[in-house]
Amino acid sequence: MSPYLLIVTAVKEEAALLAATIESPRSVRAGQREMTAGVLVDTPVNLLVAGPGQVNTVQALTSAIEWQRPAAILQVGCAGGFKQAGINIGDIAIASEEIDAHLGLEPERPTEIPVDPLPFSIGCYGGFEIKNRYAIGVELTRKAQSVISRKMAGMNITVNLGPFLTVSTITASDRRAEQYFDAYQVCMESMEGAGAAHVALHYGIPFLEIRAAANVVGKRERNHWNLPLAWERSQAAVMTLLKGGIF
Predict the structure, then answer these.
(1) Does domain 5-243 fall into CATH 3.30.9.10?
(2) C-alpha dist (Å) from residue 98 to 13, 24, 67, 245
(3) Residue ranges of domains in the chain
(4) What pTM was computed for the model?
(5) HSE, side-chain direction, 13 A CA sphere, residue 131
(6) Which has the closest alpha carbon to 8: 144, 236, 180, 211?
(7) Distance, CA of 219 to CA of 54 (rounded, Å)
(8) What does the pLDDT look like over 5-39, one tens digit per residue?
(9) pLDDT tens for residues 101-143?
């Protein structure tokens, strides 16, 4: 089996355009997970829809990797954008770091953010102890930002590079959004990134995470969300990367 790019999403809509474009598609199975294998822009890929949340992501990625090790992992999808970071609905962002918002010690006042650091590490990779932050390769992320930015120039689509926040409880108030931004200076919020970044570090596999904002983090106003736009733009970014020869 030749090396391939493992593309993981939380829900099928985040991979639908890629699935419709893939050449020579075939169904493969690993760890009771269905994947679609094929070719995108001359690149062997496996599309994996893992389900929402870190637990689904970690189980699905581990199964896929143990079945056949990929050359790289690309996580794609929608997210909430922090307006404090200048993110608008439809903007694209690339993670420079993943932060697990709920991994730590409860502070003295439970309403405080951030949680206090753990008194122990949850792993050591490349000589660095991990507690709740996962660094992502600088060279790969900067190349990705450069390639996508050139494509989006003149389209009024911002392509950001910055820290992402992974939550288990979706933020639904402006106050909590402000607290998270003040604590971490993040640009995007999702429910899967820290888990994917951890698995990639554990196996020593290059990792890249790209998301488009479907909503603004804060007070929950579903009538202002634009999921189809975020799905479309995040997958367009993937195709741009493949055409740019990033992988």
Answers:
(1) no
(2) 23, 34, 25, 24
(3) 5-243
(4) 0.96
(5) 8
(6) 211
(7) 23
(8) 999 999 999 999 999 999 999 999 999 999 999 99
(9) 999 998 887 677 888 889 999 999 988 899 999 999 999 999 9
